[in-house]
Amino acid sequence: ESFGRLWSLSGGCPVGQSSSPKNAGRSGALRAPPRSPPMSALGPDSCALGPHATGKQDAQHLCNASFASATIYYPTESGLKSLPSVVIVGGWGCGEQAMAAWAPFYASHGIVAMTIGTPSPFTDSPAVRSKALLDASLALQGEHERADSVLRGRLDISRRAVQGYSLGGGGAQLAALADPTLKCVIALAPDGGYMFPSKHSLSFPSPPPTAVPVLILCGDNDEEAPPKKFGWPHYRQTGAAKLIFEVEGGDHYTPLGPAGGTKHQAEAGSMSMELWCVNCSTICACWMCQCPLALWCTPCPCATLNGPTGHAADRAPRGAIGGVALAWLRLFLLDDETARSQLVLRPDIASGFECSGIEAPLAMDRS
């Protein structure tokens, strides 16, 4: 007998495949059972919108000192109850709209998503973004009880996740370390914030907590937050169930949307001339004072990243980005066990891919 494909119990990733059995057809030999069609990896068509119509609502009424703006995206069908939720924050210089491609994608698949903007996107550290994510997630749960809320009686307040991009990705991982009640976390092109003081940057305790599963999505050509410096070390220091998906040819802007984002579209939401002048004046003042942190802590005079990019599509070359992120939320927020077998398969566009703790069933083709 031989084993066609063996899946590891620890991470569920394929570890071997045998050749044809030598004793096939011999008397007394074990015969192969009927084989089900092979599961294919998530690909170009996995970033399509889901079956649910969606709506959005300004959520300024939820904001506090840690997050300055918020928008809720939700499935409009009133019959959908016990909805899980994910809160999403951007990175350095990002306005709230920079993350707006993800939210309707998730909502169309039955997950309430809320994008948020932080008060000082050019200076907010991963720790500040972590607090913003956690405060916003708890504030969102209040919509379950609020009389005039479109989500009144529709949220499952125990099923919460957070997602962050760049410095927000470092913040999302800090949130996982701070709040073990989160069901999972997604870090997009994560940056740990090495330019900030240690108490404001991402660091991992030893041993790291094992409660909150973490997905890391990044691009192998990312020069702003190189995966070898951030994504892969973060992955290796994570003690919970984890997966890292590095997109071949992807840059820092690639994970900005489920179909794969671009820098040009992200920079479409440029700031006004008045704000540009204010930022330039601030930079000049800091440099005149010879502040050693002026390069990092002063606003950039160039366009802010506030244009949504990588919107869901029926088919896109980098659609596996959305497919893997959605499968992660399906598994840990929607308790959809079928997502396990999809998550362990390496997408065709991956330059790097590794998982641990997803525990796909032991599958053996016996012949």
Produce the secondary structure layout.
Elements: E1 5-7, E2 14-17, E3 54-58, E4 69-75, E5 83-89, H1 102-108, E6 112-117, H2 126-141, E7 155-165, H3 167-178, E8 184-188, E9 214-219, H4 231-237, E10 242-247, H5 263-266, H6 273-288, H7 294-297, H8 320-332, H9 339-343, E11 350-356
Parallel strand pairs: 5-6, 5-7, 7-8, 8-9, 9-10
Antiparallel strand pairs: 1-2, 3-4, 4-6, 10-11
Helix pairs in contact: 2-3
Structure write-up:
- The protein has helices spanning 102-108, 126-141, 167-178, 231-237, 263-266, 273-288, 294-297, 320-332, 339-343; strands at 5-7, 14-17, 54-58, 69-75, 83-89, 112-117, 155-165, 184-188, 214-219, 242-247, 350-356.
- By secondary structure, it is an alpha/beta fold.
- The protein has a 9-stranded mixed sheet, with helices on both faces. The protein has a two-stranded antiparallel sheet with strand order 1-2.
- Helix 3 (167-178) links the parallel strand 7 and strand 8 (184-188).
Distance linking N and C termini: 6 Å
Mean pLDDT: 85
Q: Helix count, per DSSP? A: 9
Can you tell me the overall shape?
globular
Number of strands: 11
Largest sheet: 9 strands, mixed
Structural class: alpha/beta
Q: What is the helical fraction, as a range of percent? A: 10-25%
Strand content: 15-25%
Radius of gyration: 22 Å
The H/E string reads EEEEEHEHEHEEHEHHHHHE
Low-pLDDT ranges: 1-12, 14-37, 294-303, 363-367
Strand line-up across the major sheet:
3-4-6-5-7-8-9-10-11
